[in-house]
Write a structure and sequence with these properties.
Layout: E1 2-14, H1 36-41, E2 54-59, E3 62-70, E4 77-84, E5 97-103, E6 107-115, E7 121-132, E8 138-141, E9 144-148, E10 161-165, E11 168-171, H2 177-187, H3 212-225, H4 266-274, E12 343-349, E13 357-358, E14 369-372, E15 402-403, E16 407-409
Helix pairs in contact: 2-3
């Protein structure tokens, strides 16, 4: 659900060199070295300590107004540069021309050009924001194409492939022990006869010791508890809800359009992990340190800044050395722990090469289900690469390094 909600206005004016603005426009009340004239032009609060990205300059007979906009928010936010000859006059495009100056995958820098003439030109950036009614504890992952796979380290099973996924919501955090237990307690009296209790180092730590079969059944239980339509079934007619046993649910037995909870596909997981930052090793860039993720440092890798060994912040109390979810900075989509802490189960059977295309769902059959993201236990930072595929475990396997998070489709049916 979404609805147009707020409009924010950012305004400045630019005139001839002899009349560039009033004293208030050229003041700097927050003393950050950026005058109000520029801060309003780029959408910043003049009383904020964060300087803006952008500029407003007169270049010959034109006014050039440059600003930065985050790509991750462009599905919900639109920017409309406008101009006027007078403050009391009508605002319009004033023959404004917009050009994308650069695009690094996270932000676009846009230059807006207008004829300056001999008089004043008032310019403003109208920001229309659509408020998205996000499911609790989830973030919106926008639809679009991205390069899935490894472009830097030559992983043979992660050959770069252009892949497109539809928009979806994903848990901001890995499923915690406390969240698992709430659903587990409800499910055990509702036909989920063999669902595991799970384990965890603390209520706000990720749940572990859950197999692929466990987490798929838990997704269905969470859906039913919330009054949503389950996603996973044991028959192709999608009438028998998967609640018990170790069943290798097929793609045909998944109600992909249902509004219930499910595991991300491998493509969805990697799109989300990258946070809009294509072509990088990790969700934040090309190097890693223990200030960014919970993992076992190994500085023999050129991109690992260490320190070596387990992350000392989380070793108290003995293994497992998991950390409370959300202990590190989020990626560009607002997701935590997309590298490290615990491996995360995905829907797909492991297979090569990638299917590519639109909304791929992995191999039709296989022996092992894909795990992504690495964990606190890895002896190599390579496991935390956004493109790394863990193919070594059957869906029955449980361990203190395996967890998961769930997704919801956008606009799913009943």
């Amino acid at each position: 659900m979404s609805s147009a909600a707020t409009e924010a206005w950012r305004m400045t004016h630019f005139g001839s060199p002899a009349n560039t603005g009033s004293g208030a426009d050229l003041g700097d009340p927050d003393r950050d070295g950026i005058v109000n004239l520029l801060e309003f032009a780029t959408g910043s609060n003049p009383r904020s300590s964060s300087p803006p990205v952008g500029s407003l300059v007169k270049n010959g007979n034109t006014v050039e107004f440059t600003y930065s906009r985050p790509k991750a928010a462009m599905a919900e936010v639109t920017y409309h540069p406008e101009g006027s000859l007078t403050l009391s006059g009508a605002w319009s495009s004033l023959s404004l021309t917009s050009t994308i100056v650069s695009d690094n995958g996270v932000n676009q820098v846009v230059k807006v050009t207008s004829s300056a003439g001999s008089g004043k030109r008032f310019m403003r950036l109208r920001v229309n924001k659509t408020v998205i009614d996000l499911p609790e504890g989830m973030a919106l992952i926008p639809a679009g194409a991205f390069t899935m796979g490894d472009t830097l380290d030559g992983m043979s099973d992660a050959v770069p492939t252009v892949t497109t996924v539809s928009a979806f919501y994903m848990d901001v955090n890995e499923v915690t022990l406390s969240k698992w237990q709430v659903v587990y307690s409800w499910a055990t009296s509702k036909g989920y006869t063999d669902l595991r209790a799970g384990a965890g180092k603390g209520a706000d730590h990720p749940v572990y010791n859950v197999s692929w079969y466990d987490v798929v059944k838990w997704c269905n239980a969470r859906s039913e508890q919330a009054g949503k339509t389950p996603v996973y079934y044991t028959d192709n007619a999608q009438t028998l809800v998967y609640r018990t046993g170790d069943v290798n649910v097929t793609n045909a037995q998944v109600k992909w359009t249902a509004n219930g909870y499910r595991l991300p596909t491998e493509a969805e997981w990697e799109k989300a992990a990258r946070g809009g930052l294509d072509g990088k090793r990790f969700p934040w860039g090309d190097t890693i340190s223990q200030s960014q993720a919970n993992y076992y440092g190994n500085t023999s890798f050129s991109y690992d800044l260490g320190p070596n060994g387990y992350n000392a912040r989380w070793t108290a109390g003995g293994a497992p050395y998991t950390s409370p979810v959300g202990s590190f900075a989020a990626n560009g989509y607002g997701l935590n722990d997309m590298a490290g802490n615990v491996w995360e189960w995905c829907w797909d059977w492991y297979g090569t090469p990638y299917a590519g295309g639109t909304d791929p769902r992995g191999a039709a059959t296989g022996s092992n289900r894909v795990l992504r993201g690495g964990s606190w236990f890895n002896g190599s930072p390579a496991g935390l690469l956004s493109s790394y595929r863990n193919d070594g475990f059957r869906p029955t396997f449980r361990d203190f390094i395996f967890g998961f998070r769930v997704v919801l489709g956008v606009g799913g049916g009943g």
